[in-house]
Amino acid sequence: MNRPFEVDPEEYPFTDHWLPYRDGYIHYVDEGQGPTVLLLHGNPTWSYLYRNVMKELRGDYRLIAPDYPGFGMSKAPSGYRFTPQEHSEAIQDLIRRLNLKDLIMVVQDWGGPIGLNYAVQHRENLRGIVVMNTWAWPATLLPMKLFSIVMGGWPFGYWLQTQRNFFAKAIVPHGIHHAENITDRLRKAYTNPFPTPKSRIPTWVFPRSIRKARAWLANIESKLPSLSGLPAQILWGTQDSAGFPLAQMEKWQRALPLNETEILEDASHYVQEDRPDRVASAIRTLSNRT
Q1: 45 and which of 41, 63, 139, 229 could share a cystine (Cβ 3.0–4.6 Å)?
Q2: Would you give the DSSP letter of residue 140?
Q3: Could you list the active site residues?
Q4: φ, ψ for residue 44, nearest 5 deg
């Protein structure tokens, strides 16, 4: 299958894999051999987000990095609404069909709820979890609620995302602390998946779902105690202005008491872009702990 857009082969030197999903398909990277690590992205990112982590670890781990339907190089099936609930179902289907076992799960942004929805149902299949600037509960902080209203609202938020590709063009660079990392290649990698207004709708549904998926998020939160014995590494970028203060990190520390936490003063929301070395190190540390 041909790629829907070009990406720099030096930046993203991976073999493409395509998993049929209803009448669409899920694109994913499957690199290396060893303990299985599932890398889950958020909005508006895709497997490219983990490229530097995968380059560092593929000699020692099997790294699975999927793109949700409507993101990256994946194609959404007919009738797909791009909700986090549907994305979580797609990831559960991928885990089952690839027969992934004894997982280290790595989550950030919307990857948190999407991955944790699987984790609380299949604790027995998880070896450990790496958590970065994410949540798995209904939003309570005013900045996050306002973010949802503005970015996921109608008509202004819808216009921003579909007509201006605002998430890919503005939010991603704003969420990277190290300005030197924001290259033209990086900008293209995050904007190219969304060439038309229709293709950008998924980036609007995510912020809207902060409010619309409250019941689903509350259900995940109610089951988090089942993960109290799960080894965890928590990485937290403190330069994040998207509603992820240290209080949210502390909530993870309470939910995952078997945690080791690293606070990153030189990382923002997209920790994988700012400090891929620390993400790779956290995966190695967790693997050695379990």
Answers
A1: 41
A2: -
A3: 109, 240, 269
A4: -105, 40
